[in-house]
Amino acid sequence: MAKSSKINRGINRRAVLKGAAGAVGLAAGSGAITGFPYVHAADPKVLRYLGTAVNEGDEISKKCLADTGIKIEYITATTDDVTKRVITQPNSFDVLDTEYFSLRKLVPSGNIFALDARKIKEFDNITPVFTKGQLPNGKKIGDQGTAPWKVLYLEGANSKTFSKTPTEFVTLIPTVYNADTLGIRPDLIKRPISSWTELLNPEFKGKASILNIPSIGIMDAAMVVEASGQHTYADKGNMTKPEIDLTMKIMTEAKKAGQFRAFWKDFNESVNLMASGETVIQSMWSPAVTKVRSMGIPCTFQPLKEGYRSWASGFCVSKAVSGPKLDWAYEFVNWYLSGWAGAYLNRQGYYSAVLSTAKANMTADEWGYWMEGKAAVNDIKAPDGTILEKAGAKRDGGSYDDRMGAVACWNAVMDENDYMVRKWNEFIAA
Amino acid sequence: MTQDRKTFVAWLQAAPMMLVFALFFLLPLLFVTIVSAWDYNEYEMIPAFSLRGYTDTFEGCIADLPNLCTILKTYLNTLKLCLLTWGLTLLIGFTVAYFLAFHVRSKTWQIVLTLLCTIPFWTSNVIRMIAWIPLLGRNGLVNRGLEGAGLIKQPLEWLLFSEFSVVLALVHLFTFFMVVPIFNSMIRIDKRLIEAAYDAGASGWQTLVNVIIPLTKPGIVIGSIFVITIVMGDFVTIGVMGGQQIASAGKIIESRLNALQFPAAAANAVILLGVTILIISALTRIVDIRKEL
After folding, report:
1. Beta strand ranges found along A143-220 (DSSP E)
2. Strand partners, A260
3. What is the pTM of this model?
């Protein structure tokens, strides 16, 4: 007993000494006892940019720093995680790069700052696709789903209600958008594909795939169901419960029959599936098709007669941003729309929001290939200089007007989203 | 007096771990349980009592009888994968540990070979899983090889994006968690016991069944707890290797989270926790780990 208590005392003494030394060290380290005056350096202009990896290019942040002196710090997350973060940690970012369909969740949360349209220099030059739902030539485009012009304006600076008519309070300044369709392997299919119904054609049993992101996957599923004539939706982007049941029933039957090889969730997964020949037909994104092609494997972003499913993203600003940071945020958005970034995005197969400024930053040949559906005069190169297409090639689906003009619906968050997610889980479990 | 001090010091020594445990495990767990009984809408949790998360989860479980509802189907499937993985990792893990403990004589070699078992962890999870595609895919090495050898005419589709590939990947990943605790139990077996069994005329098999296995039980149970808890909650491996077509308990939680339905996700997490605790308490019923350690 005596021995043990002695040891205990020893431990205690040592521990106390150690603790004291640690405290002194800590105090010294933190500068608490130094007494030197606090020197305030000029704050560098830094913006924390939350978004998915798709738009977070190093070139963009480098060019932005060179042009405006604003340092962009990327915070990368998946589409779903970005939304989660905005809702739960609005102080953890300044500028948000997100899609229009997320706004139906983000705006009611009150964490999004209403931007002042008058401070956006090129606002009036933003393509009418966003502001009016029509092409520059006046042609109306599909408005099913969460189309951008439905959620672009707010009723007031602190409003949580979307305005049906244009106001000066803007939720999301558009930057990039595209029209999505099925990607196919023409070398393995060996016949023309012209309809969404082909996704469930038993000919491609075990070689088809769709996205496992419920809010996007269900839209592709709806395109298939409508194309096969089994049901015509009033609004594919806002289904009723029976419509969700029907859509999932058709998909479940196909799944049970072994139609799908795998579902994909991530850009690289879709590239791998297609490049390895595991799938020959699947829902896909434009740069993923480009990536498969740049590996020397034939892959077509197949235009279909029922049209495209479109998406669009842009910049929001966190409600927590104020003071000089807010000015930088406007400066950054204005820089983004001023042309260089737009041209950069166009060269990857996306579309930029302000067409005129992007055009000024591209060669006539590039503009002809990417935007006008013309045959390339010279080789078409990616922003990093790798050759994407040989001279003479034409873009799948043709011109901007042909592609965006054929949009049938937009990525969406439905009123019955909760029910839809449950049914999607059931589909995965089937 | 000294007894009191001794207990006090013991508590003090355990305090940092207790604090970490309480702050980062018990407290969050409590929050999850509370949130699971909240209501929610499209974008936020509503702190009002609602069992919607639970009732939605068990939707159709009675109405659809005799067909199984989604949640039961999902759990049966998860349990099946878990059982297969557990059986295989136990068999392989036990064999590897046995080899390491009784056939490898030098301590250095034991350490080197154990380190070799960690090779699967040298790269990231995602890269490891993507690497299976060129191996097991339709045009992968295995199919090419079998076709080249004239054994098959059509590529085998079930090699990838199937339950086979899921179990294969899980076994590949988690056998190590079996090897270490079993190996640890085995090297602590007094070698004289084995000699005694030999002297008493026991065959190799009898020694294994009557001496080694009973003495390695704690290792087996600890390894089993590792493997079962990891596999029950896994959604990444099952997702990627199953081509996202195979349901798992973890996957349900993930898709609920992604839809911002936190209370529903929390409810599913509580259910998963309950099921896992049941399995583990059944295991610890069989072997009292604390007594055996």
Report:
1. 169-170, 173-184, 208-209
2. A208
3. 0.79
- Determine whether the interchain pair A265/B244 forms a contact, defined as Cβ–Cβ distance below 8 Å: yes
Of A154, A166, A222, give the one whose Cα is nearest residue A411. A222
Cβ B252–A425 below 8 Å, yes or no?
A: yes
CATH code for B69-292?
1.10.3720.10
In chain B, the residue whose alpha carbon lies closest to the alpha carbon of A271 is B130
Kind of pairing, strands A308-318 and A407-410? parallel
The type of residue at A153 is Y
Contacts across the A-B interface (CB distance below 8 Å): 108
**Which of A80, A277, A422 has the CB atom closest to B138's CB atom?**
A277
The CA distance from A218 to the nearest CA of chain B, in Å, is 14
Which domains are assigned to chain A? 45-176+311-367 (3.40.190.10), 179-309+381-429 (3.40.190.10)
Q: What is the pLDDT along chain B (293 residues), one digit of tens a residue?
A: 577 888 899 999 999 999 999 999 999 999 999 999 999 887 788 889 999 889 988 887 888 777 888 889 899 999 999 999 999 999 999 999 999 999 988 889 988 988 888 887 787 777 777 788 888 988 889 999 999 998 888 888 889 899 999 999 999 889 999 999 999 999 999 889 999 999 999 998 999 999 999 999 999 999 999 999 999 999 888 988 888 888 899 988 988 888 888 999 999 999 999 999 999 999 888 877 776 66
Nearest CB neighbour to B261, from listed A209, A277, A418: A418
Residue ranges of domains in chain B: 69-292
Q: Which residue of A has its CA nearest to B261?
A: A418
Question: In whole angstroms, what is the distance from residue A219 CA to residue A217 CA?
Answer: 5
How far off is chain B from A238, nearest CA to CA, in Å? 14
Question: Mind telling me how many Å the CA of B213 is from chain A's nearest CA?
Answer: 38
- Annotate A228-241 with DSSP letters as a single string: TTS---S-TTS--H
Q: What is the ipTM of this complex?
A: 0.75
